Amino acid sequence: MKMFKRGISPLIATVLIIGFTVALAAIIMTWGTTFSKGMQKSTEATTEEQLACAQDVQIDLSGACIDGVTGVKLTVKNDGSKDIQNISARFYVSGDNVVPLYLPGASLPLPAYGIKSVTLSPTGFTGAGIDFNDVTLVEVIPVIKVGEKLLTCAATKDYFGDQNYEDVLTPCA
Questions:
Q1: Whole-angstrom Cα distance, residue 102 to residue 85?
Q2: How many CA atoms lie within 13 A of 51 on its CB side?
Q3: Which of 5, 78, 99, 105 is most buried when burial is the number of CB atoms within 10 A of its CB?
Q4: Domain containing 117: what range?
Q5: How does strand 137-146 pair with strand 84-94?
Q6: Residue 99 is assigned to a structural domain of this protein
Q7: Structure letter (DSSP) for residue 129
Q8: CB 170 within 8 A of CB 67
Q9: 106 and 65 within one domain
Q10: CB under 8 Å to 154, separation ≥6 — which residues?
Q11: pLDDT (tens digit per residue) in 72-130
Q12: How many CA atoms lie within 13 A of 56 on its CB side?
């Protein structure tokens, strides 16, 4: 008994190979388009955030003093065109003794081109184990809103006090 083996014709094989190649190319093109659009949106968002911090935010800590009753009084100016939603502050006693605090939300946001005085009570300091009368340097870092995201602009910080950590802040007048 003789068996005849039959394969597919060269024409059908060529059509199948071309069909698979076109389908694979379509899948890769779809994935590539989605991937590049996602990268573009991510890069655009990051660029917008960086530009907002670099161009629209200018904070000036124009004064800081110690009030023996109420705590530390800060005078903060927003010289930028973007509202500051919150402010992170660092209070230095020495180079390695730092108390980070957030300023009270009740006195913020600080509008564009605005100025506010904010007083921090000593309770934030006593929990950290230092006396607010020992503070030598204050650093403020603005937090802004870009879209729906809160963004800390660490490069746009400002200082008030002795950067050698020798002289404590003066009492308020």
A1: 11
A2: 6
A3: 78
A4: 58-161
A5: antiparallel
A6: yes
A7: T
A8: no
A9: yes
A10: 141
A11: 888 999 999 999 998 888 888 887 888 787 776 556 788 999 998 887 776 666 666 67
A12: 18
